[in-house]
Amino acid sequence: MERKLLTYEEKDTWIDKLCGVTKLVFFLCWSVTSMMTYDTRILVLMLVLSLIIFKISRTRWDQVGSVFKFILLFLIINLLAIYLFSPAEGVKIYGTETVLAGSGRYALRAEQLFYEFNIMLKYFTVVPSIFIFIVTTNPSEFAASMNRVGISYKAGYSVAIALRYIPDIQADFRKIRNAQMARGIEMSKKGKLVDRIKSTTAIIFPLVFSSMGRIETISTAMELRSFGKHRKRTWYMARPLKRNDYLVIAISVLFMIVALTITYMDGSRFYNPFV
Amino acid sequence: MNEKAVIEFDNFTFKYRTQVDPTLHDINLKIYKGEKVLIVGPSGSGKSTLSNCINGLIPHIYTGEQQGDVRINGKSIRETSLFDLSCMVGTVLQDTDGQFIGLTVAEDIAFALENDCVAQDEMHARVDEIAGIVEVGKLLKSSPGELSGGQKQRVSMAGVMVRDVDILLFDEPLANLDPATGKRAISLIDRIHKQTDTTIVIIEHRLEDALFCDADRIILVEDGRISADMTPDELMSTDVLIRAGVREPLYVSALKAVGVELEPEDEAGQIDTLHVEKYADEVRGWYHKQPHVQTRAYGEEVLGISHLSFAYDQNVTVLEDVSLSVRQGEMMAIVGKNGAGKTTLSNLVCGFLTPDKGEIRLNGSDISGLSVKERGEHIGLVMQNPNQMISKAMIYDEVALGLQVRGVPEDEIKERVNKVLRICGLYPYRNWPISALSFGQKKRVTIAAILILEPEIMILDEPTAGQDYRHYTEIMEFVRDINKKAGTTLIMITHDMHLMLEYTNRAVVIADGHLLADSSPAAILTNDEISDKAYLKRTSLYDLSRACGIDDADGFTEAFIHYERAHSRG
Fold first, then answer.
1. Residues 233-252 of A with CB under 8 A from B
2. Contact A183 B402 (CB under 8 A)
């Protein structure tokens, strides 16, 4: 059956009812805070909040699961790479050195572990908010909200169109894969990895061609209906900001200011438990 | 009729920038306000170019050299911007999926209004009004994926009508629709024409279906020139259509086969207006002289399906208790409206889906244990769109692919590829890049790529969709040749009633997941009840035979098809 990966789905929650622009503001504040701060207390608080919001938004695991696994893989690579290239980064940051095991360059240090733990926390605070933003924002409203925060509607619309075509391209992909499998090109897990990588070209080639055909049709259709005629346009789906929207925006901005103030109060953006 | 030309071609010649010769030569054409005009012509005749001039894609998007002028409402297309032209001419494109821009029906209808900066309240009111006219009012919140082909087309129509255009231009509106939905689309266009006094231009090669509602004029385009411009009644009394490679309505072909020379006064433009009484004796006489059609005997069962059921989840049953048996060497059609379960059936047979209940047998043994790849050696699937199958740049490589992945030795591959390319008439092109081929030739490449695996059964999904009469005949004669020479059993999933009548011996009708009928195509297309349920369209041969007092419409249809087959291959 069709899996709806990272696509908008209407759910009747209060998060759903917020304007796209509100969610965009929240998402931006949240990511900025998380990127700037290394204050573990704030990161832990943000992690807890993210999980609560994730729950409230009723985002289902099958909507985001496989993407999450992909990000997890990335996170592990990132953490290992930091250890590999700079195994004493934590010592530099926190100013103390507590060797837990081993010796020499790759000795395991408490400071390094703590530093990498913070990085992991950052991932886990930002990722749910990305997911929530994507699966609760109606793509057409998304374009409208991008436009409202000052981004050209053409840029916003191209993102919306891309989102609109995800299901179609997924359907094409399945059709093409089926037909190629029937010709004997192994795509299932039974085949060797090298063969499978080779055989994906048998899908990519036709997929790119059929997608290019789609792009031509859609741009003609848009042109014939005056897309890009004026510098501005109106939006059928635009929603006025309501009380909840103002509240969420205010809280998001406030949270960012407070969190960053606490972070920088002692002159460093790192929270140091070692002194 | 108001004598004001809304579309005016004045000694117009056009050459695309990328081409050597002009596509349109010295076109002179006037279309008046409130007219309904059909433009017909084979592929490559220039009819699409003609329509691109009307909506302004030429010269604003597709550039080239032009002489003479085209004026819309008196304004030259060169001096008017595409935006202004699109406020006068609304274009409904052929591809109903591709032109859907919005994420919901309402947004799609409102798209042009949004770009015109119409205020939100006004926009909502206007969308509701137009949605009512094309009867999609209840679907405003639906997404494109939830709509049927016919509904998508209605939304596309609403999306251009929302601006109060003077001219509605339809580019092959019937291409992707099942026959009954196509008929409804034509009626809707007719109703809009009568209610709003809009000028209607329809480009279509399925002439008989397009003429379901009367048109004022038919313009035949051939090699970039207008070779006929007359009323349907006049046109039917000539043979210009056949010479240009455009299919005449079946009842007209039948009358001509009988030897009748139609006059414009016979009003043969539509079967309902045709004065058939004066020819009834002749038709009857001809029918009684036809030899009785012998049905061919077929071999053993190659594919057996018993009590097959399938549901995507518990609530939505797609197929229920379908049983059928296909014999060796048959050419069979699977027909039914969009979404009836035809494609699901072929997906089950190929192993892309697993049935909930029932059995599929190949040469008598159950194939539930076979993988997709293993089934692929016996059952080949050719998809509708060749671009979705071709994965190599060169013809030879594409055809060889199936053998290469099976580890067949290189010299054997070469020998087999060359043999298949000869059968498919592609041998002279074997070292060509596929991108240099026409659509019909690409289709042949995909068929060749399947044929090389020597399947016993080949399933063709809409083999002729979007093809004009010449390409249709070319593809189908080719397919029939394969059936004869290689003995391959052919199952064709199709909307095309002509294909079913002319090229298959048997039709299986699927409606709402059930097997509704399994009989000869002529018997099915002369049966009202089945046609209605399966969204097919009764053939006009039925009406003709009835009007001539022949009770056995089925027999008459068979006799005519048989006669045509014998004569077309002369």
1. 233-238
2. yes
Say if the Cβ atoms of B117 and A234 lie within 8 Å: yes
Best mutation target, B115, B316, B461, to test chain A (most A CBs within 10 A): B115
Confidence grade of residue A190 (pLDDT, cut at 50, 70, 90): low
What's the gap in Å between the CA of A192 and the closest CA on chain B? Answer: 13
Parent domain of B239: 5-245
Q: Which of A140, A180, A183 sits opposite B103 (nearest CB)?
A: A140
How high does pLDDT run on average in chain A?
84
Tally Cβ neighbours within 10 Å of residue B499: 23
- Name the DSSP class of B295: P
Residue bearing the bigger pLDDT, A242 or A1: A242
- β pairing state of B217-222 and B225-230: antiparallel
B264 and B188 in a single domain? The answer is no
Is B37 in the same domain as B119? yes
- B448 lies in some domain: yes
pLDDT value, residue A59: 82
Q: Which residue shows structure tokens 């090669």? A: B205
Within an 8 Å CB–CB cutoff, is residue A220 touching chain B? yes
The domain ranges of chain A are: 14-138+238-265, 147-224
Q: Is the predicted pLDDT of residue A163 greater than 80, yes or no? A: no
Chain B within 8 Å of A194 (Cβ-Cβ)? no
In a domain? residue B295:
no
Question: For residue B126, how many C-alpha atoms fall within 13 Å in the half-sphere facing its CB?
Answer: 22
- Look at residue B296 and tell me if it is in a domain: no
Give yes or no: residues B208 and B270 share one domain.
no
- Residue A273 or residue B111, greater confidence: B111
Residue numbers of chain B with a pLDDT score lower than 50: 1, 570
Q: Which of B61, B98, B312 sits opposite A223 (nearest CB)?
A: B61
Residue B465: how many other CB atoms lie within 10 Å = 15
- Contact across the interface for B160 and A180, Cβ inside 8 Å: no
pLDDT band for A5, please (50, 70, 90 cuts): low
Residue in chain B closest to A161 (alpha carbons) equals B101
Candidates B110, B115, B119; nearest CB to A229: B115
Contact B422, B436 (CB under 8 A): no
DSSP class per residue in B342-391 = HHHHHHHHHTSS--SEEEEEETTEE-TT--HHHHHTTEEEE-S-GGGT--
**B208, part of any domain:** yes
Identity of the residue in B99, B373, B389 whose CB atom sits nearest the CB atom of A184: B373
Q: Say which amino acid occupies B548.
A: C
B416 and B395, same structural domain?
yes
A6 confidence band (pLDDT: 50, 70, 90): low
Same domain, B126 and B231: yes
Q: Residue B325 sits in a domain of what CATH number? A: 3.40.50.300
Whether residue A225 and residue B380 make contact (CB cut-off 8 A), yes or no, is no
- pLDDT of res. B180: 87
Q: How many folded domains does chain B comprise?
A: 3
Distance CA A116, CA A204 (A): 38
